[in-house]
Design goal:
By secondary structure, the protein is α/β, with parallel strands linked by helices. 37% of the residues lie in helices and 10% in strands. Bound molecules: NADPH dihydro-nicotinamide-adenine-dinucleotide phosphate and 1,5-anhydro-D-fructose. The active site is at residue 29.
């Protein structure tokens, strides 16, 4: 997400070279063909085998119609030059009308919502597992009630929930719920999306918060590593991204030290329900997952 368009292939190759194996993709990022070139090159060069990679894909809001799901997933696989996803998610619970535009609009500039129920979309994802196109399936940006609805109908239970998660939005309740349901949580924007326009003046960027900086100094590590380790010690998978090879390499050192219980608690207490990813284009959608 948000990698400079003409650098995606090089950056994904760098990531594989420095040791990353989970590649988080989505139709809406618009760069799967370039990610696919990197995967193909690295496999051909013998740097990595397909089975060692964990590739996540996400179905975008305009393709929730069960009739469209299989072709959409197959198209993403073709772009990525792979034959299966390790993990495939419904990106948001909010369906839009089918369109080649990511955000189809009416004449007044309002997003055109569809009335497709994500529960029906879920059944189409189950068929992808049956067909061997996905090894596991899951959800992204769903709230507790929405996950419960999926669980009620699911023949194949969601294996994963990908959500925004960092100390300003620690997601404790949602994570506790997922633990009980055996759902692995993946934390996105773990560094607080430092380039997001939602970093408000008057609020510290997470990487610059005095507590995070103090901990970083005391452990002689970069602030980013404190934020990544915070997720790992909570038992979450964590995905970040970088356009800099040195950041990529350094971030992999997040497991080289340990935060104690008091430090974890102090980080947890930074929570104020501070979201960076509001999905404002779906404001007013009956399935919008959160209030703001
Ligand atoms: N399911 C969903 O709806 C969503 C999923 N995601 C996924 O999560 C990923 C990460 O989320 P994102 O919002 O980018 O947020 P992050 O919080 O991971 O922030 C990424 C930014 O952090 C900077 N950074 C990385 N490492 C370091 C470091 N060691 N020191 C200082 N700065 C660093 C990078 O800048 P630099 O290039 O300078 O290193 C980059 O701009 C996305 O790429 C996407 O795959 C994201 C949003 C929504
Ligand atoms: O993953 C994400 C980043 O890109 C999208 C915006 O274009 C977001 O909606 C989404 O949550």
């Amino acid at each position: 997400f948000q990698m400079p368009t003409n650098e995606v292939t090089r950056l994904v190759k760098d990531a594989i070279d420095v040791g990353y194996r989970h590649i988080d993709c989505a139709d809406v990022y618009g760069n799967q063909k370039d990610v696919g070139l990197a995967i193909e090159e690295k496999i051909k060069a013998g740097a990595v085998e397909r089975k060692d990679l964990f590739i996540t894909g996400k179905l975008w809001n305009t393709k929730h119609d069960p009739q469209l799901v299989c072709a959409t997933c197959q198209n993403a696989l073709n772009e990525l030059k792979i034959t299966y996803f390790d993990n495939y998610l419904i990106h948001w619970p909010t369906g839009f009308v089918d369109s080649e535009e990511k955000y189809p609009l009416d004449a007044n500039g309002q997003t055109l919502f569809s009335n497709i129920d994500y529960v029906d979309t879920w059944r189409a994802l189950e068929a992808l597992v049956d067909a061997g196109l996905c090894r596991s399936i899951g959800l992204s940006n769903f709230n507790v009630e929405q996950i419960k609805r999926v669980f009620e109908v699911a023949r194949i239970k969601p294996a994963n929930l990908q959500i925004e998660c960092h100390p300003y939005l620690n997601q404790s309740e949602l994570i506790d719920f997922c633990r009980k349901c055996n759902i692995v949580v993946t934390a996105y924007s773990p560094l607080g999306s430092p380039h997001s326009p939602y970093n408000k003046p008057g609020t510290y960027k997470l990487l610059e918060h005095p507590l995070i900086v103090d901990l970083a100094l005391s452990y002689k590590r970069a602030p980013a590593l404190i934020l990544l380790l915070y997720q790992i010690q909570r038992g979450n998978a964590v995905i970040t991204m970088s356009t800099k090879r040195e950041h990529m390499a350094d971030n992999l050192n997040a497991c080289s030290f340990e935060l104690n219980e008091t430090e974890m608690k102090r980080i947890d207490e930074l929570n104020f329900n501070g979201r960076y990813n509001l999905m404002e284009n779906a404001k007013g959608h009956p399935h919008h997952p959160f209030e703001y």
